[in-house]
């Protein structure tokens, strides 16, 4: 009887020693979370968003009052029209002076021929030459003045265009858009409320692409590398587990003390390293749920 008990004990020890561990590390599931804040101040004219809603990246989920911005845009358009109407027509405004200069140059040429033939005194040529110089200076001054006026108006028009671009950007920011695809986790405002710029409106998370944050000991680091394919198990409680394919996406380069809520393969280890395992969620995994990983 004693010999039979010893044999049973030996079989039990072999079976227990050969039993493979079900997991190498445990942790909790997390998701990339983004808090969306108001980019413009104003009343929330539309904000029909509820916690638990699934939204796509780029979809509009709300609208801030745009009345004042539209009025400023109309004012900028009117100002631009005024500046454009003030732009001088260079050719038309110098046409008269240019014609006078051409006439004076013709007179000068005629007097040169008369003086060379001895049919007119040289003083008449001198007067004609001075007249050409005066008209040329008047034309140059007029062109310079008109160019300065035109340059000033063009600068003012450019300033108005910049103001309009700023207003269009402010108008765009009145449209509240989801930055990522995911689920609305928390909602901080309601339709009809006044939202100041920078006020948090809602928080959402990418629940389609989850990751398990687990912790490994320094001895386990040799088994883990970025890009490694692993098995992840979501723990639903009551011994209900579901297996997923995972990929190691990040390994911490700094050790830390073992978190109180985390179990490792070696519970005596004081220092551990955090790792992230990316997992495609089928809708069953929830943020904060416990999980296990097998390397």
Any chance you could write out the topology, listing elements then pairs?
Elements: H1 2-18, E1 25-30, E2 33-37, E3 42-46, E4 54-55, E5 60-64, H2 67-85, H3 90-117, H4 122-173, E6 175-177, E7 182-187, E8 194-195, E9 200-205, E10 209-217, E11 229-237, E12 240-251, E13 256-257, E14 271-280, E15 290-294
Antiparallel strand pairs: 1-10, 1-15, 2-9, 3-5, 3-8, 4-7, 5-6, 7-9, 10-14, 11-12, 11-15, 12-14, 13-14
Helix pairs in contact: 2-4, 3-4
How would you characterize the overall build of this protein?
The strands form 3 sheets. A 6-stranded antiparallel beta barrel has the order 1-10-14-12-11-15. The chain starts with a helix and ends with a strand. It is built from 4 helices and 15 strands. The protein has helices at residues 2-18, 67-85, 90-117, 122-173, and strands at residues 25-30, 33-37, 42-46, 54-55, 60-64, 175-177, 182-187, 194-195, 200-205, 209-217, 229-237, 240-251, 256-257, 271-280, 290-294. The longest helix has 52 residues, at 122-173. Helix 2 (67-85) packs antiparallel against helix 4 and helix 3 (90-117) packs antiparallel against helix 4 (122-173).
- Total number of β-strand segments? 15
Q: Kindly provide the radius of gyration, computed on alpha-carbon positions and rounded to a whole number of angstroms.
A: 41 Å
List the uncertain runs: 1-19
What fraction, in percent, of the residue positions are helical? Answer: 25-40%
Helix count, per DSSP? 4
Distance between the termini: 44 Å
Structure class: alpha+beta
Tell me the fraction of residues in β-strands, as a range.
25-35%
Average of per-residue pLDDT values: 87
Element order, helices and strands? HEEEEEHHHEEEEEEEEEE
Largest sheet: 6 strands, antiparallel, barrel
Q: What is the strand arrangement across the widest sheet?
A: 1-10-14-12-11-15
Overall geometry: elongated
């Amino acid at each position: 009887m004693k010999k039979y008990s010893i044999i049973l004990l030996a079989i039990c020890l072999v079976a227990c020693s050969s039993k493979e561990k079900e997991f190498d590390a445990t942790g909790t599931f997390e998701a990339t979370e983004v808090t969306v804040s108001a980019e413009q101040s104003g009343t929330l004219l539309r904000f029909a968003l509820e916690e638990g809603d699934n939204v796509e990246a780029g979809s509009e989920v709300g609208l801030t009052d745009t009345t004042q911005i539209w009025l400023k845009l109309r004012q900028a358009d009117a100002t631009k029209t005024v500046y454009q109407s003030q732009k001088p027509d260079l050719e038309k405004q110098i046409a008269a002076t240019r014609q006078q200069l051409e006439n004076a140059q013709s007179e000068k040429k005629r007097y040169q021929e008369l003086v060379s033939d001895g049919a007119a005194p040289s003083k008449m040529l001198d007067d004609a030459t001075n007249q050409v110089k005066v008209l040329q200076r008047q034309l140059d001054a007029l062109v310079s003045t008109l160019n300065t006026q035109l340059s000033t108006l063009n600068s003012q028009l450019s300033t108005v265009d910049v103001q309009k671009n700023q207003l269009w950007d402010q108008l765009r920011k009145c449209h509240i858009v989801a930055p990522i695809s995911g689920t609305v986790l928390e909602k901080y405002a309601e339709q009809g409320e006044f939202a100041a710029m920078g006020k948090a409106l809602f928080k959402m998370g990418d629940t389609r692409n989850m990751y398990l944050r687990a912790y490994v000991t320094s001895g386990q680091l040799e088994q883990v590398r970025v890009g490694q394919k692993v098995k992840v198990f979501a723990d639903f409680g009551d011994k209900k587990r579901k297996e997923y394919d995972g990929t190691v996406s990040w390994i911490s380069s700094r050790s830390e003390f073992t978190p109180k809520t985390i179990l490792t393969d070696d519970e005596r280890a004081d220092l551990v390293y955090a790792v992230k395992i990316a997992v495609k969620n089928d809708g069953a995994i929830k943020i904060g749920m416990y999980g296990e990983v097998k390397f």
